[in-house]
Design a protein that fits this description.
Layout: H1 4-10, H2 17-32, H3 41-45, H4 49-61, E1 64-66, H5 73-90, H6 103-113, E2 115-119, H7 125-135, E3 148-150, H8 160-165, E4 179-184, H9 196-202, H10 213-225, E5 226-237, H11 247-253, E6 257-265, E7 276-282, E8 292-296, H12 301-309, H13 313-320, E9 323-326, H14 327-332, H15 344-354, E10 365-369, E11 378-381, E12 388-389, E13 402-404, E14 413-415, E15 424-426, E16 428-432, E17 440-443, E18 448-449, E19 452-453, E20 458-460, E21 493-497, E22 507-510, E23 516-517, E24 521-526, H16 535-542, H17 545-555, H18 568-572, H19 584-605, H20 611-639, H21 645-657
Parallel strand pairs: 1-2, 1-4, 2-3, 4-5, 6-8, 17-23
Antiparallel strand pairs: 5-7, 6-7, 8-9, 10-24, 11-12, 11-15, 13-14, 16-20, 17-20, 18-19, 21-22, 21-24
Helix pairs in contact: 2-5, 5-6, 16-19, 17-21, 19-20
Length: 663
Amino acid sequence: MVSIQNQRELGIYYTPISIAYYAARKSLQYYLGGEYILSSSTELILRDRETIKNLREKAEKIHILDPACGNGVFLKVATTLLYDLTAKLKGSKVVKNIAQPSETEVLKHIIRKNIFGIDINQPLIEQYNQEFLHDFQIDFQDQSLHPIHYGNFLTENPISEWFSSQEIPQKSMGKDIGFDLILGNPPWGADLSAFKSTLQQKFPSIAQGQFDSFAIFLYKSIECFLRDDGIIAFLIPNEICFLDQYGSLRKHLLKFKILELINLGFEIFPNVQKPVLLLILQKSPPNPPDNEILVRVDFSDKQKSLILDDMSALEEIIKEDHYIRLESQFSDNRNYIFDIFSDPLDRKIMDIIHSNHFRILGDYFYSGRGVDTNKTGKYFICPKCVALNPPFGRGHSGRHTSKICQSDNCDFIFKKQDELNYETIELISEDYYFQQSNTVPGYIGEDLGKLHFRRPPRAVLYGDENVRNIMNNEMLDCSNVMWGRDELYHGKKLLIRKVSTQHNLQIMLHMGNKLITNQQIYIFKKKDSIKDVSLYYFLGILISRLIHYYYINKFGDPYKKVLPYFTQSNLKALPIPLISPKKKIYSQLISIVKELLKNVSLIHTCSTCKEETVSYTRSKLLKQISTLYSRLDSLVFSLYNISDKDIQEIIIHRADAYGFQFF
């Protein structure tokens, strides 16, 4: 078996058979044309001879690929479904008098001619094939019946030999080479470092920034191996729907007919911290342009348990509760976001908000992140050139076992096995900031809460002239430190934490002078065009239930509780009403925000009160804060021209359900 560590490096997550069954069954239905095909044979009996003949020929010639098949669960299910279809066709009056092959011969034909699997785990290929054929009670010795083949789908073309054996015209990369269905659960988060540059050259529009292995699998499968009108069904992370880095991939997918987007969420795969999405797509243009997509986003724990235990449960649950989205709505979204968590009622509310044609936050603010470093600002001091170098990271970046010094004229190689031996320096201290010549005040992500700071500022070594080796007081080379934009650190600003707590915007304003942050905090500063508009006004809008509701529906997954995070681009896309400071509602909103700040500050300091008064004081403050938020929400609804009380209540209810918190 593959170890957990190797599974993570290869991006392997084995698929429950019930989910593979749904994906394969629905894909066959879409490809062969109708639900009747995989239901009862009595419906087939009623079909005319020509229909049955065409169906039989189409099923016999179908080619199905799983490009990262593992032990072949999708191929096993596809084989079973094709066999069942063949049996139903045999039961048809149209063909029942024709001599039929045996059950074993039918299975052999399907395995030899209809299915093809690729897997990168060479030591287990023989075992996978043996188990596959054993499940169908077929002799393992016949090599022509081995459906699973060794190969690296991302960098090679391990399919050509099989196509030659099928007597199918081989066509060049980038053109249709004949797979009618592509099914699977491609690797997520696989280590691509060995061939990253190759992938970037082959797939420049997709292999950008911190791209994931699943994205390359999806793009290559569609572009290079799925024939026109073919169907692909992939289990992938649902972050493809809304993360900025997948904008180009979403744009590409919208060239074709998306059939289903099923958000299975968490707890489908063990040891996986990302929610799962089933994407089913047909490689044909959306026609009509308003192609209807079947969407299902929320499964209860009880339903998930039932899905994993019962092969037919997923289809029944989706039939009972789903909604339809128009593909053109995704095309109209910024960066082609698939806002699948917006149901028809949400869409109605969004239309009301957008009908105001407000300008966006990015029109009023410029922004950036703080110093690009971890929470301690830890750096290795190069023993050869005294340049600061970032330590070995975690996750993807932590897979590297060595790296060369970042200084241009230095060839020293840091080795992960020796990292405890290197001299280090920490730019960010746990100590409180006091006015010292070589430090400035600063915060890291965990210091920032909603409407409050969790501690006084830290002492931060900032700037090339302030960073010295404590051992000998020599100046260190800080040219590799990404300090951020110095202008962001001066003057009044809004601070927003990248990683949130249950989707709550951790936001606070800083009205003082210079303040440094690390990369986990976004810094928003007003443009000169709105210099007379108070930061308190914008803060009031951004902490409201309406914005909490809007952001999650537009840009996020309300069911993701593990490290949900905000992006600058999404924040800057929020529609913000700008009114004259002379209007009464402007001063009212600012007054409420200042009261909220005062009460939140008090509730975080009431622990210093005598024990018998803490509970009373906290309860009283919470009641006041709740009242203030109600007044704030009422003003914000007015600013967005949402006067319908029922709509207001829906927004409040859903914002609370999505984890809205006061502070």
